[in-house]
Amino acid sequence: MSMFFGKDKFTTRRQKNLFKGGGGNSNYDYGKTIYQDLAETTPVSLGGTLAVTGQVIGTGMNQLLGKLIGANMNVTTDQAIPITRIGSQKYLITKIFVTNASTSLTNADGGIYTATSKGGTAIVAAAQVYTALTSATVGLDLTLAVNNTYVLDNLYFSLTGAQGGAATADIYVFGIVLPA
User: What's the domain count of the chain?
Assistant: First the structure.
């Protein structure tokens, strides 16, 4: 069963004009008829799924900019968080969220930086603790240390103190891609 109605479902003159782009009094008169628009779409049946590959990026709206799935919470080395955007557009980080801890993070602390080796600017301070992450279902909003715009392709997660045993967590970076 398709989500689109057939033309036989439109019985009044106004409905028919709206359906086929009859011009003049139509609310749909943009140079193409709705028949042409429907021919260019892929109908999705009820109960079906529509797959979108990749990440949809727009400007001026809060969205997921990058993620690090399975961040190792037991090492103090750099772990890159790739940032996705179109070209080299500036972005503003609005939130960094950590969740899905594999174990209770009682000892891990550390920050997120603009360069490797805890260099550049500390977006999240080195003193950030993760003790609130007691299970996979708990989330933690990290405290942002600065409110700058960036054009970086990667941010770097680097712990100051390791957990002391095998542990992972997922890190999500949200922000706004600024229009050029």
Answer: 2
The reply to whether 57 falls in a domain is no
Same domain (yes/no): 107, 127: yes
Instruction: For the full predicted model, state whether its pTM sits above 0.90.
Output: no
Buried b (16+ CB within 10 A) or exposed e, 158-170: bbeebbeeebbbb
Locate 52 and state its tokens. Answer: 């979108």
Spatial neighbors of 105 by CB under 8 A, at least 6 apart, are 73, 130, 131, 133, 134, 163, 167, 169
DSSP code for 110: E
Digit-coded pLDDT (tens) for 106-122: 999 999 999 999 999 99
Query: 3-state SS of 121-164?
Result: EEEECCCCECCCCCCCCCCEECCECCCCEECCCEEEEEEEECCC
